[in-house]
Amino acid sequence: MASLSSQPSKKAIRSPSSSSGSQANRSSSGQTVKFARRTSSGRYVSLSREDLDMSGEISGDYMNYTVHIPPTPDNQPMDTSIAAKAEEQYVSNSLFTGGFNSVTRAHLMDKVIESDVSHPQMAGAKGSACSMPACDGKVMKDERGADVTPCDCRFKICRDCFLDAQKETGVCPGCKEAYKGGDYDDDDTPDFSSGALSLPAPDGSKGDRHMSMMKRNQTGEFDHNKWLFETKGTYGYGNAYWPDQDDMYGDDGDEGLHGGMLETNDKPWRPLSRTIPIPAAIISPYRLLIAVRLVVLCFFLTWRIKHPNNEALWLWFMSIVCEIWFGFSWILDQIPKLCPINRSTDLDVLRDKFDLPSPSNPTGRSDLPGLDVFVSTADPEKEPPLVTANTILSILAVDYPVEKLACYISDDGGALLTFEAMAEAASFADMWVPFCRKHKIEPRNPESYFSVKSDPTKNKMRSDFVKDRRRVKREYDEFKVRINGLPDSIRRRSDAFNAREEMKMLKHMRESGADPTEPIKVQKATWMADGTHWPGTWAVSASDHAKGDHAGILQVMLKPPSSDPLMGGADDKILDFTDVDIRLPMLVYMSREKRPGYDHNKKAGAMNALVRASAILSNGPFMLNFDCDHYIYNCQAVREGMCFMMDRGGEDICYIQFPQRFEGIDPSDRYANHNTVFFDGNMRALDGVQGPVYVGTGCMFRRFAVYGFDPPRHDKLTQNINSETQSLTATDFDPDLDINLMPKRFGNSTMLSESIPIAEFQGRPLADHPAVKYGRPPGALRIPREPLDAAVVAEAVSVISCWYEDKTEWGERVGWIYGSVTEDVVTGYRMHNRGWRSVYCVTKRDAFRGTAPINLTDRLHQVLRWATGSVEIFFSRNNAILASSRLKLLQRMAYLNVGIYPFTSTFLILYCFLPALSLLSGHFIVQTLDVQFLSYLLIITVCLISLAILEVKWSGVGLEEWWRNEQFWLISGTSAHLAAVVQGLLKVIAGIEISFTLTSKSAAEDEDDIFADLYLVKWTSLMIPPIVIAMVNIIAMVVAFCRTIYSSTPQWSKFIGGAFFSFWVLAHLYPFAKGLMGRRRKTPTIVFVWSGLIAITLSLLWIAISPPKGSTPQVGGGSTFQFP
């Protein structure tokens, strides 16, 4: 990846005048260097050096355009310098801390975990000792774990001693000869790490003095890739090839990339994805029934309004108000489902376009864009580290180019337990990831893989599979034991070090003559494995070491891999990984800084910190976020999502949402945890409009869209870029953005601002088709990634500090949006409101899987959190009523329904009481069961059933799943949704903040029954409304039945009408009743107390309101009553 950092090299830091001198020479030069740029329409325009200098800025469109020269027989890539390797290993072995009003520090760690480390380049790995006297450092190692010796004499030397020798004498301490290859710290020596050749300038001169700052990479060294761009040098096919001067101004924009597409044009162009419409035999009747039901519903409500029940106007009025609201709510939910679609991808085409070797790419280096994967966790007690570690392992083993993948774990709790668990996972990945690649393992979450009950040898053909699996299973069991033992290990280690500190303090007090009776004041610190204080949260909270008060922490646990495959051997690892790529993706642990007095904005703030840190370290143009309990179940799911982003027309896709699938759900799915009606019905339908909503996890984002920019608009870009000397700047993407106000929007990090145009360019689809008006040339992303250095990591630490977002637009326009507990929906809404579209990617094999609460109480609290966020959205500026014209009508209705659906609870609760009130009062919602009323009711019911059957057909949802969804809709609507409305109103009116606790993801105590949580009954006030509704309807049915039997003129029609609707309510509450019964019908005492109290109270209240006929008071103060 090309870098835009203007960070000077070490020599430039020592000699500040050198850079200024070069700038003076460059500005005084009279030579003209031609620049070329491809516009969105396909034309090439040229820009002179003077034009760029006069503009006062270097556009991101030039700065991110890099050229890669492929290896040829006379052009073999050289290894990166020893200094670069040493610096990168130093970065990966150091823990960086910093924050507000504090210096960023790099703590070089001897080891990160107490157990033996498997990965050769992790801190604590076994290695040779430095041969320098009085030095206890370790010798530098390469990716295979072999010692790196900078001199031919093979004198073993550590990184610090090597840098000291280079700085002082430049002589090897072993053989006393000068180190060969003096490009370790030389600004004028070319960098051949990308395989570039040194070509002469067009005029035959060296051209060094007249080049722009673009020629210098992040370490200040000469970059031939950028040099070739400025001089229009060309070499080989498939690169960012600039056409001849005559072709540069051609009128036909489709002919602008002839040089760069010679190979791709040899094959017929094929799309990466296809849209599959729903069969007309299903969708046409479906739409017709929606129209019929809508018309009949209007006639029905009109008839109901014109025919009131004069005997019970109060009952009629309540029923008609509820029915009108239900009709409005049904329209908001049903109309956006008019255009459902299915999609398919072609992974073979993706491989042909991006991964196949070719004459210009003999090594088969991938041209796919980079991908940064985010995993967020906050509390290791409620989110077990083993679950998070398995998620990380599934990500590291995903089928995607290793050098293009980076994984970031955000620990919002700053816990040492999470840190060491991730280090253990990184160490175990050294075996697990190559094992998955060798035997094509699915799923690549070890816990899920070893728990699969099917035959593991199915479709496995390698003879050593059984032996390898047995060995990996044993290693994984030991890994789990180490993870489970970490809390006790950390506690014992901290107690031992704290006791040692107390002894030191006591000894000091004795030596200083202090009073020995005074208590010893030693902080109860939490200690890392290398015997130093953990900079995050301590077990015993202290100043600067509490959950809401600690420094920012960042460590690159696994450094960026090499650009080319690193094949294993029979002797490299415990297993035989011959012809298997043993590289691991980059893994970064991050815990953002937290300080008292700052609003850290919960998960949204953590996600924004991940976005900024990843932009500095890897800057993948696409980001994929997970909750810690969701893992990759299909290793090729990422590639399927990339098919949409890289396809023609993919430049205006802001995110790819994958459906959420869950494990550990009871077979009957009592509380509709799978939520298939939403994920397979509503989301698939929205995919045919403007795209599905963002649901918090399992979503692949375009980084440029997250930054708050509008989608590319080809017509306006073409109109704006009509001059051959006009540069493409950030203002072309956002006309309201002044380049001088970039810090106001994104913060004061120059590296972050400069990474934005790079991410935008690298996220474009391939310009391999005339219809692609906003693409990039093939081969532009085969450039090796720049190695990390300490200054870059220090910059990443600064952007995760608590003060960085002050007076910026992070959380308002940029990144995840603040102000709602459902920040995911709001963030997706903002993108759609700016004109972006999203795509719903349903894979044949589930893409990702996670866990969901199967306990009734936990499920209700989860729904409460979602509904409260919807109420907040309704009362905020994110209400879809206030959306811009870029939001399509059906999409607007869907978002409006998101904010309105919790308010249905008020009408739903009232409507659930109407059958009981009807039975108790002896009146029905209509005066008589008119034929017209029954006809309307029958047609509406038949339409409802037919719509459900057709929706089951096109969505693939089972009829039982649909019924479970209907049941839980009533359960949640009468409990959690009502509480959400109350809490939302309290926040809006009184300003009372709402706090939610994390849903526990730990298993139940009963390990023999994986569904033990299902039977746990934990009382919550949310259960009161459904219990009251159920008891009132049961009592009303009994009372009405008794009254009808003993009545002189029984009115069975009214009883049947009321009893039918009461039964409808009770049938929906059946799963709730089963949840209250617990295991083996163990019902909490509180349920019987509530039931009895409510039954007695309602009975006495009814007798007081409507006393039995013929009852007269008796003398003596007593009275009697009889049940009707």
TrEMBL record:
The keyword Transferase applies. Residues 8-31 have a biased composition (Low complexity). The chain crosses the membrane at residues 286-305, 312-332, 900-921, 933-950, 970-992, 1027-1046, 1052-1073, 1085-1105. One of its GO terms (cellular component) is Golgi membrane. UDP-alpha-D-glucose binds at S376, K382, E383, D412, K602. It holds the Pfam family Cellulose_synt. It is a multi-pass membrane protein. The active site is at D412, D824. Its main location: Golgi. Mn(2+) binds at K603, D627. SUPFAM superfamilies: RING/U-box. Keywords: Cell wall biogenesis/degradation, Glycosyltransferase, Golgi apparatus, Membrane, Transferase, Transmembrane, Transmembrane helix. GO terms for molecular function: cellulose synthase (UDP-forming) activity. It is found in: Golgi apparatus membrane. GO terms for biological process: cell wall organization; cellulose biosynthetic process. It comes from the Eukaryota. The keyword Transferase applies. Residues 1-41, 186-209 are annotated as: Disordered. Thought to be a Golgi-localized beta-glycan synthase that polymerize the backbones of noncellulosic polysaccharides (hemicelluloses) of plant cell wall. Belongs to the glycosyltransferase 2 family. Plant cellulose synthase-like D subfamily. This is Cellulose synthase-like protein D4. It comes from Nyssa sinensis.
